[in-house]
Amino acid sequence: MGGGSSTEALTGMAVGVIEAGMCDAVIINRSMNGFTETRTGGTGQQAPRFTTANGLDSLQTAIYGFSTPLQNFSLAFVRHMHNYGTTNEQLAEVKVAHSWGASNNPKAYYKTRLTVEDVVNSRYIVKPFHLLDCCVETDNGTAIIVTTAERAASLAKPVVKILGLAGRVCKWQAGYPWQNDPISQVAGEYNARILWPNAGVGPEDIDITGSYDAFTFTSLIQLEAYGFCPIGEGGNYVSDGTIKLGGKRPNNPSGGHLCEGYTHGMNMVIENVRQLRKQVDDYCEGEHNFDYSEGACRQVRDPEITANLGWANPGTASSMVMTNQ
């Protein structure tokens, strides 16, 4: 069950088979009818939820009404809110920040810049989380190509190199993650112990993050887990302007899953590649002008290193660091 951690994990597999000499290039693709078919928030006919249970963890939870990602994932973050005092207003800042990027993204599904009040005044889906704490379901197709650095240097686009990865790192029991360790602890804390030594950099070296945002809280709790701020201080980190366009370390400047479209994490890797190439598609005419007002630029100024933080569920995570150097 790779879920939203699949992109980074599959990229790691691609690196491995290329380095083993099995092939020269690998394409990783994802296409889905998330809006028109039977996805969680899609418009297609919905299957009876209990019949979709698969695996022991689903059988243990579906009978209690835990049949959607928000119902399952929210347990970890409700405990986080209880332990650390994280508020709905702080969570809303994640949506606000991502809506800033989406407002300058021609491909984004939702382009309107939102306020904290917009988010907390939207209807509840699973208390205490609101409609605008949830990602958008979309029909989409995405792809990335992995090849050798030498071959990439001969191609048309600027080279983006992979510094390090950690694929599908789990808590002690990934399928039922609240059985082991604090319920608010997620797999990203274990993943970070592998990622940063592999990449040879740390959180302080990162210019842009792509933290998986199926919900506002998945971005926040992973930014903590990977050390961008101390555990329990994620609410302040996402509220002080750091993750917005023009901030110290923008997160998901395309709008991410919350605003651009839901692609199981593919669009976040693609966005970081474009950012490192300094070739994002926005509303600039000619050169990027770094005007982050609505309907203008979303290119981050002179990024060198990015991090993607993939999420399958609280118990499973993948990650990747890339650079243009």
Molecular structure report:
The protein has eleven helices and eight strands. Helix 4 crosses helix 8 (216-225). The protein starts with 5 loop residues before the first helix and ends with a strand. A four-stranded mixed beta sheet has the order 5-8-7-6, sandwiched between helices. The chain has a two-stranded antiparallel sheet with strand order 1-4. Strand 7 (305-313) and strand 8 (316-323) form a beta hairpin. It is 33% helix and 17% strand. With 325 residues, it is of the alpha+beta class.
Tell me the layout of helices and strands.
Blueprint: H1 6-19, E1 25-33, H2 55-62, H3 69-84, H4 88-102, H5 116-120, E2 124-126, E3 129-130, E4 139-147, H6 149-152, E5 161-170, H7 188-199, E6 208-211, H8 216-225, H9 234-239, H10 256-259, H11 266-277, E7 305-313, E8 316-323
Parallel strand pairs: 6-7
Antiparallel strand pairs: 1-4, 2-3, 5-8, 7-8
Helix pairs in contact: 4-8
Keywords summarizing the entry:
325 residues, alpha+beta, 4-stranded mixed sheet, two-stranded antiparallel ribbon, 11 helices
Describe what is shown at a glance.
Helix content is 33%, strand content 17%. The chain has 325 residues and is α+β, with helices and mostly antiparallel strands.
> What is the general shape?
globular
Largest sheet: 4 strands, mixed
Count of runs of 4 or more consecutive helical residues: 11
Unreliable stretches (pLDDT < 50, length at least 5) are none
Mean pLDDT: 92
Query: Share of helix among residues?
Result: 25-40%
Largest sheet: spatial strand order: 5-8-7-6
C-alpha end-to-end distance: 33 Å
Q: How many strand segments?
A: 8
Strand content: 15-25%
Order of helices and strands: HEHHHHEEEHEHEHHHHEE
Spatial extent as radius of gyration: 19 Å
Query: Structural class of the helices, strands and pairings?
Result: alpha+beta
